[in-house]
Amino acid sequence: MPIRSKICGITTPEALDAALAGGASHVGFVFFPKSPRNISLANTQALLKKLPRSVRSVALVVDPEAEFIDTIVRDLPGLTALQFHGDEPPSRLAALRGQGLEIWKAVPVRTQADLMKSADYKGAADYILYDAKPPKGADLPGGTGQRFDWALLQGVQHPLPWILAGGLDAHNLAEARQVTGADFFDVSSGVESAPGIKDVDKIAAFLKAASNL
């Protein structure tokens, strides 16, 4: 399986161009008002018009209202996947399958017990995204630059295809690959100069590092 990389939290044409130039397989758009990467549907529509069909697009949501999911599906016809980062139960995600979009579920990890929760989403999601569990009471469920102990993933029988996220950057990508065996990476803060501000040079460096794995 070739290495795949998703640049998440894109908000500008410059960041999108850097992701495309570097060979990203996926790009992500965040629909969560508390996030510094929050983007409007109108701006996302404009960016999606620049996206070649070979690059997949993902909408990140956090415990969204059903009406908002309907709006996303209707107004972003080029979208590939919905990525859920809240406390969405498996039953809700299972009900959304079959609309033509992949369903991704983020599982926040700090301990081995956290990893086991991914099994709950077998049959409900298409991908599990392992991310670092934020501190209790944190405003953001991800994109904080934190990483979990990657060694927890060694020897795990994953219930679904999976993606590694949390604290990744160009400098530790090879280590992440070596420790976990991951072939699909999701990065956000690791390619930023400040929260929500994508750095085109860091995007290029990350995707170059990925291509060298």
CATH class: Alpha Beta
Cα distance, first to last residue?
Answer: 12 Å
Main beta sheet: strand number and arrangement?
8 strands, parallel, barrel
Mean pLDDT: 93
Q: Could you state the CATH homologous superfamily?
A: Aldolase class I
Output the CATH topology. Answer: TIM Barrel
Please give the number of β-strands. 10
Tell me the strand percentage band: 15-25%
Discrete helix count: 7
What is the CA-atom radius of gyration, in angstroms? 16 Å
Low-confidence segments, ≥5 residues, pLDDT <50?
Answer: none
Structural class: alpha/beta
Estimate the global geometry from the Cα principal axes.
globular
Strand arrangement across the biggest beta sheet: 1-2-3-4-5-6-7-8
CATH architecture classification = Alpha-Beta Barrel
Q: How many domains would you count in the coordinates? A: 1
Q: SSE string, helix = H, strand = E?
A: EHEHEHEHEHEEHEEEH
